[in-house]
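Title: Prediction job returns without error message
Component: structure pipeline
Severity: low
Priority: P3
Assignee: unassigned

Description:
Job completed but the reporter wants confirmation the result is attached to the right record. Sequence as submitted:
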Amino acid sequence: MHDIQLGNRLIGASHPPFIIAELSGNHSQQLDLAIAMVEAAAKAGAHAIKLQTYTADSMTLDVASDDFVIKEQNSLWYGEKLHALYQKAATPYAWHKTLFDKASSLGMLAFSSPFDEAAVDFLAELDVPCYKIASFELTDLPLIAKAASKGKPLIMSTGMASLSEIEQAVATANKKGCHDIILLKCTSTYPAEPTNTNLMTIPHLTQAFSCQVGLSDHTAGIGVSVAAVALGASVIEKHFVLDRSAGGVDAAFSLQPDELQLLVTETARAKQAMGVVCYGGTAAEEKSKQYRRSIYVAEDIKAGTLFTADNLRIVRPAFGLAPKHWSSVLGQTAKVDLKKGTALSWDAIG
């Protein structure tokens, strides 16, 4: 499985997890707030920010039919008309360059999820380093083909997708010449529960498609993302907000700046901790071995005295005979006088 180049960063097993802060519609249609979000994401250590590129009209139809109203009672957006929701959450096209330039000036990558073919062309003009296909668009094969034709890597979320649907999406991208693909495990509920996250899918996706795999995480907190890294995730995407209490369409399952900073730190630690199969202690532990236990003289002993559990003890440190020799030593005779605190050696046994 090969590393993938995104701008100036490499994504892969030998690199720290790539952390994406998803702005979504949490900017509440305020450009100054969006800019502040980009600045806060950079300060927290995120490697990229991501937008969503659509208009309400490119997403759905402005009709009052029940088909176009969210009916799931456990949804954050229950009762909302799709068109009105997308109108409220959309990031204006005119903002994209401003936000991308701001991210770049702060050392971050910036890209977006296009939701129609015109959006792909728009993002191509901004020379994005990659394209992100959202979970709900994974079955939109014409959209995938369009994005794949631009010669940039594709990140594709797989929420709700069957294995065959993922295969079709990957095959569509490959047919258009795109082989730099990152698949994101995703649970398409908002928020998502850890019990529905099924992170064991990550190593299976890696094996099935021989590609980089990550997590688009809609759960609260950072625990699920850290666990994902331990299972091989090389990319983590999390929705981001400056202040959950201030609202935002995705605020309920978004990280605040301090939490995003913790995500960056702890996923990097999780990655470092994976290491290799190792027994017997590392080089760093070598000096600690002296604090194991060994057999010591526990009181002054004259030559010719029998060794007993009263005049010997198994204590720290480890400069005497190993505890495994205890039964062999008891009942033996001291060859020489021994002072209390002497590390017992074979030379002292007659």
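Comment from assignee: result matches the submitted record. The radius of gyration is 30 Å.
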